[in-house]
Design brief:
With about 550 residues, this protein is α+β, with helices and mostly antiparallel strands. It has four domains: about 150 residues, ibrinogen binding protein from staphylococcus aureus fold; about 90 residues, no CATH class; about 140 residues; about 110 residues, no CATH class. Helices cover about 35% and strands about 20% of the residues. The chain is built from twelve helices and 21 strands. The radius of gyration is 36 Å and the shape is elongated. About 0% of the residues have low confidence.
């Protein structure tokens, strides 16, 4: 959207950033105001617009960014030109070199889906460098340094050359009954969707009316008499009777729209990447638990093997010393009723007895070890479920990074997190939650009358809030046997009423896995009754002396 870009003529280039592989941001200064020109070459969100939203930058600038800084910083924007309504924009820059000779550079931005590119040219249109190098079979369109740059070829007519409706009709290819298809395949820079929008906006299919609307829109592109109209989930540029008094307002509308869209998609992609890692371990531990249950089921028969060994040993004097596959003996633990014992005929009865005792001891040891391992595995699964809940509740990249920070301290994730972090553009910063009582952290805050109620956003923050930040006399809340956040009511020597406690319980319920349920049990007690076992995972505590409230989460009231 190049609306009002002529107003930036003469702006001095003072900063250039490349936040990621698809974005270049050029900082400009004019008349005491800083502007940031965002160039996005993302295949589904490509655009050029002024932006007020910042993005994190890599510690080491990419090579293309360094080239742009070398050639453009200090120059001034001379012009911004579109090529016949094509999605190719030329930014012209001019300045003085070290000996005060005039130098000029061009930045070509090609916004063509997956073929988007940013190309830096010298004054002779020779390519200095480009965001993406392209070795095309057509030598004239090879985008590599030191090649002569040529504009992409187009086989459509330039709508700007339509001096009147007759010229428009002369160049219109009527290949179908659809105006939108005919116009979009005949002229540059006009989409089928936009023609359909005009037809709906004007409630007509008259070609002359559509032509007039297109001409008026293009002629007003630098005015303040345009707006965006939303149809379903799409926005279309439309004429407006209302004259906006904010320069660049269409740019900033686009800026906010795409920032929200990209932030949402970025958050979703990042969450899914981390969730995939969690679910991998979750399924792994569930499989391990299944194997443990199978082993413990086998251990249920351990007393039977001890009994077999005892009965054979006690009756060896009566048993022929020969290899047999079965024997019936009196069970003196069961009123001397006969019991059939299967034997391995490879061995003598005495050896079979020894083998039964060995199996008994093996299963007995396995029962002890596997029972302990099962308890640990169940704790790990419960912890993983709490992480999945945290991810589902995370509202920003920063919150997910804090969850990753927590996972990076867990042995089961250390290697995986290191590999993941190398692939991601988000830097994982270590948590600032330390033993320092005065450390700042950022729980969710609620004001209930003259009380403050705090909610932890992740396991580490839950631990810090409950065990470090709160006083022993403050009141702790948590959903009963349901994953959720810790809540702490700060008393400050005040006594809360039942209504206050109930409100706190409702807030905690709305920050739990049961946020869409009814009649949710919420336990509460004084902080002094909340303890953490040595070696337990973040967020895992046990408590006593609690009471329970049954409430509906806030969104269910």
């Amino acid at each position: 959207m190049l609306q009002n870009f002529g107003q930036l003529s003469g702006a001095r280039i003072d900063k250039i950033f490349q936040p990621n592989t698809n974005n270049v941001v050029i900082g400009m200064f004019l008349d005491g105001i800083n502007y940031a020109l965002n160039i996005s070459t993302d295949s589904s969100n490509y655009r050029i617009n002024l932006t007020t939203h910042t993005k994190p930058n890599p510690k080491i600038a990419p090579n293309f960014c360094m080239v742009l800084r070398k050639h453009l910083i200090g120059l001034r924007l001379k012009n911004a030109i579109t090529n016949n309504l094509e999605r190719v924009v030329t930014f012209e820059f001019e300045g003085l070199d070290d000996v005060d000779d005039v130098i000029s550079k061009k930045l070509i931005v090609e916004l063509m889906g997956r073929h988007c590119n940013i190309i830096l040219l010298n004054s002779n249109n020779i390519i200095i460098d480009s965001l993406r190098h392209i070795n095309s079979e057509n030598a004239n369109r090879a985008i590599i340094p030191n090649n002569k740059y040529t504009y992409p070829k187009t086989y459509k007519f330039n709508f700007l050359d339509c001096i009147n409706f007759e010229t428009f009709m002369k160049n219109l290819k009527c290949t179908s009954d659809s105006n939108s298809l005919n116009i979009s395949t005949s002229f540059n820079g006009i989409s089928k969707q936009y023609i359909s929008f005009i037809e709906n906006e004007l409630n007509t299919s008259n070609l002359e009316t559509i032509y007039d609307y297109l001409v008026k829109t293009i002629n007003k592109i630098d005015s303040l008499e345009l707006t965006f109209k939303k149809i379903d989930s799409d926005y279309f540029l439309a004429l407006s009777d209302y004259q906006e008094n904010k320069p660049f307002y269409l740019n900033f509308f686009i800026d906010d729209f795409y920032y929200s869209k990209e932030s949402s998609q970025e958050l979703k992609n990042y969450r899914n990447t981390v969730l995939k890692l969690i679910l991998y371990h979750f399924e792994k531990y569930k499989k391990r638990l299944k194997n443990m249950d199978s082993k413990l089921k086998e251990c249920e028969d351990l007393d039977k093997y001890k009994l077999y060994g005892e009965l054979i040993t006690a009756n060896l004097y009566r048993i022929p010393d020969k290899h047999i596959n079965e024997i019936a003996l009196e069970n003196y633990y069961d009123n001397n009723n006969l019991i059939n014992i299967k034997l391995n005929e490879k061995y003598s009865p005495s050896v079979n007895a020894k083998n039964f005792f060995k199996k008994y001891n093996k299963l007995k040891n396995a029962l002890e070890v596997v029972s302990k391992q099962k308890k640990e595995t169940l704790e790990d699964l419960e912890y993983l479920e709490s992480i999945i809940y945290e991810l589902d509740s995370a509202k920003s990249i920063k919150e997910i990074s804090e969850i990753l920070d927590e996972l990076s301290e867990n042995e089961m994730f250390k290697h995986k997190i290191h590999s993941l972090n190398k692939k991601q553009k988000y830097n994982i910063k270590k948590s600032n939650l330390t033993k320092n009582k005065n450390v700042t952290f950022n729980p969710l805050k609620y004001k209930i009358n003259n009380f403050t109620f705090l909610i932890g956003r992740n396991n580490k923050e839950n631990d810090y809030l409950t065990l470090k930040y709160a006083k022993k006399t403050d009141i702790w809340f948590h959903t009963k046997d349901i994953h959720g956040s810790h809540g702490v009511l700060i008393l400050d020597n005040k006594q809360p009423s039942y209504d206050i406690l109930e409100k706190c319980a409702e807030i905690v319920a709305s920050h739990s896995k049961a946020k869409f349920s009814y009649n949710v049990p919420v336990d509460y007690c004084e902080i002094k009754y909340v303890k953490k076992a040595n070696g337990s995972k973040p967020g895992m505590v046990f408590y006593t002396n609690n009471s329970t409230l049954y409430v509906n989460p806030l969104n269910k009231k």
